[in-house]
Design the sequence.
């Protein structure tokens, strides 16, 4: 039963102190007052907007998606020190060139160096944390076969270069061996800038082998030395499990020894790839996923979580390949949460067509720029900004 007062009904049947019954003024008990306070606080909490996440462990979906231009930009690399983003875009010749812009896409300028040919691919690979250098994928000036083999993501006939922000100085960090067997793809600096890791193909793709459908890959890690001229030293090759496999390394943690990667060394199937972390000093490997296929793992800046892409829970549209969305999990693989729903039919983030979440670059612990592939082959898509809710 609800009690009544001059102000109206009080939920829960709690009588206010002003209520008079049979000529007697009834005093409020401490218990009744406490209950009233609790109910009021609950009502306020229920009506208040949800607090923005402050750490990666608070990230939940659906995350907010915002397009970062629609002019073919792809390959987002954010640098927090300079608050700028690097990315690639094809020119009139069909070759990728690299650009730097502000966080809103303004003040765009091309990254170029006099020794690089305009009719060859150039693509950002990774920022040095301080922002003074950008590692680049640069197609060799002369090589066999066509430039199609050097498209970023395929990476044959390509070297790693390091270029200054103003493009006035550049140094070749790593010269890839000649031949179609060899290629380089993803790379990353450690958070303190002293390590550089990359993915290197050592055997050409085998189209009828699901394990090596994209080729056989190894991971490499080296010390980055800035003086007297920038160069790499003490390079080591890493082969998880010691067997031929497909896969890519995406990140190295702040401890300078834990890498995050995906691999086929257990499943022997590129379409069932799993995510792992590995201590490159001890060789200890931890498997983090087994659902569907999973790739592109990256440590959040606070080191507590890993954001990755997977086909888990992704609807498959008629006559199209399976897409993938971004998920987040703790670094030990627990508490997996879906962040985006681009491949869930009927969802507001979906256009009911193939969308493949790709590599990403963190703005903060709860926000990142990421690539979304709109075609199953090649490097065709767009950059989106993803903000956890």
Sequence:
């Amino acid at each position: 039963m609800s009690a009544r007062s001059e102000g109206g009904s009080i939920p829960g049947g709690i009588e206010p102190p002003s209520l008079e019954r049979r000529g007697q003024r009834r005093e409020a008990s401490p218990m009744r007052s406490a209950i009233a306070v609790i109910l009021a606080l609950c009502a306020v909490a229920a009506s208040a907007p949800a607090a923005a996440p402050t750490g990666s462990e608070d990230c939940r979906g659906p995350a907010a998606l915002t397009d970062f231009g629609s002019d073919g930009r792809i390959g987002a690399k954010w640098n927090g020190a300079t608050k700028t983003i690097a990315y690639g875009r094809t020119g009139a010749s069909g070759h990728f060139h690299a650009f730097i812009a502000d966080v809103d896409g303004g003040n765009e300028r091309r990254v170029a160096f006099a020794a690089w040919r305009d009719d060859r691919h150039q693509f950002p690979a990774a920022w040095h944390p301080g922002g003074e250098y950008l590692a680049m994928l640069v197609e060799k000036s002369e090589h066999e076969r066509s430039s199609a083999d050097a498209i970023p993501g395929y990476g044959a006939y390509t070297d790693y270069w390091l270029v200054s922000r103003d493009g006035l100085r550049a140094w070749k960090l790593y010269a890839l061996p000649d031949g179609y067997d060899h290629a380089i793809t993803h790379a990353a600096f450690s958070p303190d800038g002293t390590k550089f890791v990359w993915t290197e193909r050592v055997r050409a793709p085998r189209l009828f082998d699901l394990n090596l459908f994209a080729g056989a890959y190894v991971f490499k890690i080296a010390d980055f030395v800035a003086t007297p001229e920038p160069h790499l030293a003490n390079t080591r090759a890493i082969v998880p499990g010691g067997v031929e496999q497909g896969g890519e390394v995406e990140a190295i943690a702040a401890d300078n020894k834990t890498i995050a990667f995906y691999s086929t060394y257990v499943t022997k199937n590129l379409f069932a790839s799993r995510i792992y972390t590995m201590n490159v000093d001890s060789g200890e490997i931890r498997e983090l996923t087994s659902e569907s296929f999973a790739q592109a793992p990256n440590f959040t800046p606070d080191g507590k979580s890993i954001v990755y892409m997977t086909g888990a829970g992704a609807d498959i549209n008629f006559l199209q390949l399976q897409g993938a969305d971004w998920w987040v999990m703790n670094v030990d693989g627990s508490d997996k949460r879906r962040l985006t729903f681009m491949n869930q039919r009927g969802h507001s983030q979906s256009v009911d067509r193939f969308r493949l979440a790709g590599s990403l670059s963190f703005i903060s612990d709860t926000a990142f720029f990421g690539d979304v592939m709109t075609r199953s082959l090649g490097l065709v898509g767009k950059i989106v900004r993803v903000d956890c809710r």
